[in-house]
């Protein structure tokens, strides 16, 4: 059963156990009513049997049995009960009453009455057997008085007692439900006020909600909402900065393209026109590179793509990327090397974005490495981490600017180059999505930069063999 309302949900879980208790009480009341009805019936039967036994006498050596009307009339309760009785001697001689009234089995005459259940003429009975000594008739003494009553009064008494108990229990349950509803209305009032605060049009939609005016139980919820709003605000601020920076960064190359196109249009000499068109093509390539990186960064942002859990061979992916950049490295006379450890470097993640991460690391290294320099890509493993290292002997990054190079559109001006300032930002987003770490450090000797990426890789999937 699906319960949408919190009020209904709480009411159900409060009243359901209470209803169970009521059912247990009703059953207990039934047992008590049945015991009470048994006791009343037993006392009435015993009183009637005693009355009959006390009227038995011996006249001229013969036992005389007189059945007092009061002994029978005491069973007249208006429920149509039938009464059957018999009086027998010790030898089984019937002195009065019905001849086949059932006797207790087994029954030995004694001083105490015996109560039992039986049936007579296809009617269930509640009976008593009472032995009574007779003075003056030693051979027949004692006599046994058997008297039984049908169960109409007995059952009606149980119903009357049980009906009263059930009515009390139902009234108690209804009163409890009403009090619980009233309590819920007052108890849920802070939650309703919190709802109104969230929906208040006059408030800033992302402004934090106050936590001091809410109950302790609601405080974690409010704190979670505030944390969520804080992350949304941070993301929106980042998007606004990204859009503003992107607009600025795109505007500059577009202006340059328009200027170069206008210059090529005005150029009269073939050499000048060719030079202008070459510059125009170069600017267009840079602009296309920036747009591609912007698209890559948008895909790398949290929530931009559905999470993927693909098995990725980090070494094989890096090798394919290096093959793509081999032409660029040859054209600039850069030694592009690759080292791979014996252990397998299988990780689980988004293969497309992990490839983009390696592309940007290698592209950055080649862009800032001078002609005749070297770039070395290494893949290895340390415990449960797969380690990707890209080392170059370019100008490196000044220590005071290292914390900022992961910012979008940030470029180290002293290094020159034609980068867009988005490469390391893309790397950071991809590594964060893979629950890894990226660090920058200078080489032990000389100049340059070492970028180290550490991404978790399960040992059982990376064992050699």
UniProtKB/TrEMBL annotation:
CDD domains assigned: HATPase, HisKA
Transmembrane segments: 12-33, 170-189
GO cellular component: plasma membrane
Organism: Telmatospirillum siberiense
Entry's EC annotation: 2.7.13.3
Keywords: Kinase, Membrane, Phosphoprotein, Transferase, Transmembrane, Transmembrane helix
Keyword Nucleus: no
Catalysed reactions, semicolon-separated: ATP + protein L-histidine = ADP + protein N-phospho-L-histidine
Pfam families on file: 2CSK_N, HATPase_c, HisKA
Ranges for domain Histidine kinase: 245-459
One Gene Ontology MF term: phosphorelay sensor kinase activity
InterPro entries assigned: 2CSK_N, HATPase_C_sf, HATPase_dom, His_kinase_dom, HisK_dim/P_dom, HisK_dim/P_sf, Sig_transdc_His_kin-like_C, TCS_sensor_his_kinase
Designated name of the protein: histidine kinase
PANTHER family: SENSOR HISTIDINE KINASE YKOH, SENSOR PROTEIN QSEC
SMART domains listed in its UniProt record: HATPase_c, HisKA
Location of the protein in the cell: Membrane
Gene3D superfamilies: 1.10.287.130, Histidine kinase-like ATPase, C-terminal domain
């Amino acid at each position: 059963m699906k319960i949408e309302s919190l009020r209904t949900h709480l009411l159900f879980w409060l009243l359901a156990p209470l209803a169970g208790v009521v059912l247990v009480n009703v059953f207990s009341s039934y047992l008590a009513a049945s015991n009470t009805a048994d006791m009343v019936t037993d006392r009435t039967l015993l009183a009637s049997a005693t009355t009959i036994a006390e009227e038995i006498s011996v006249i001229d050596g013969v036992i005389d049995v007189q059945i007092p009307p009061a002994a029978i009339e005491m069973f007249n309760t208006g429920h149509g009960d039938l009464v059957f009785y018999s009086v027998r001697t010790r030898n089984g001689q019937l002195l009065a009453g019905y001849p086949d009234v059932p006797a207790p089995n087994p029954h030995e005459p004694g001083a105490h009455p015996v109560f039992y259940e039986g049936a007579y003429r296809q009617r269930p009975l509640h009976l008593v057997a009472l032995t009574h000594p007779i003075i003056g008739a030693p051979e027949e003494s004692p006599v046994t008085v058997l008297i039984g009553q049908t169960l109409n009064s007995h059952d009606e008494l149980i119903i009357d007692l049980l009906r009263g108990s059930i009515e009390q229990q139902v009234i108690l349950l209804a009163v409890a439900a009403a009090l619980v509803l009233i309590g819920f209305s007052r108890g849920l009032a802070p939650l309703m006020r919190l709802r109104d605060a969230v929906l208040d049009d006059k408030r800033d939609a992302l402004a934090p909600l106050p936590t001091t005016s809410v109950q302790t139980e609601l405080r974690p919820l409010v704190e979670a909402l505030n944390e969520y709003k804080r992350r949304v605000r941070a993301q929106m601020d980042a998007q606004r900065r990204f859009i503003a920076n992107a607009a600025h960064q795109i505007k500059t190359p577009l202006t340059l393209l328009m200027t170069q196109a206008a210059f090529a249009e005005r150029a009269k000499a073939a050499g000048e026109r060719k030079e202008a068109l070459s510059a125009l093509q170069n600017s267009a390539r840079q602009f296309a590179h920036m747009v591609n990186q912007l698209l890559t960064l948008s895909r790398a942002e949290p929530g931009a793509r559905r999470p993927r859990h693909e098995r990725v061979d980090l070494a094989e992916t890096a090798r394919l990327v290096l093959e793509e950049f081999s032409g660029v490295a040859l054209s600039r006379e850069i030694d592009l090397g690759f080292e791979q450890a014996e252990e397998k470097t299988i990780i689980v993640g988004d293969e497309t974005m992990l490839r983009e991460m390696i592309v940007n690391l290698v592209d950055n290294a080649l862009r800032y490495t001078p002609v005749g320099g070297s770039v070395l890509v290494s893949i290895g493993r340390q415990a449960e981490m797969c380690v990707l290292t890209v080392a170059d002997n370019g100008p490196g990054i000044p220590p005071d600017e290292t914390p900022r190079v992961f910012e979008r559109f940030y470029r180290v001006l002293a290094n020159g180059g034609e980068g867009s300032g988005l490469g390391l930002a893309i790397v950071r987003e991809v590594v964060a999505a893979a629950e890894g770490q990226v660090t920058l450090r200078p080489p032990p000797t000389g100049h340059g930069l070492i970028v180290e990426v550490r991404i978790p890789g399960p040992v059982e999937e990376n064992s050699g063999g």
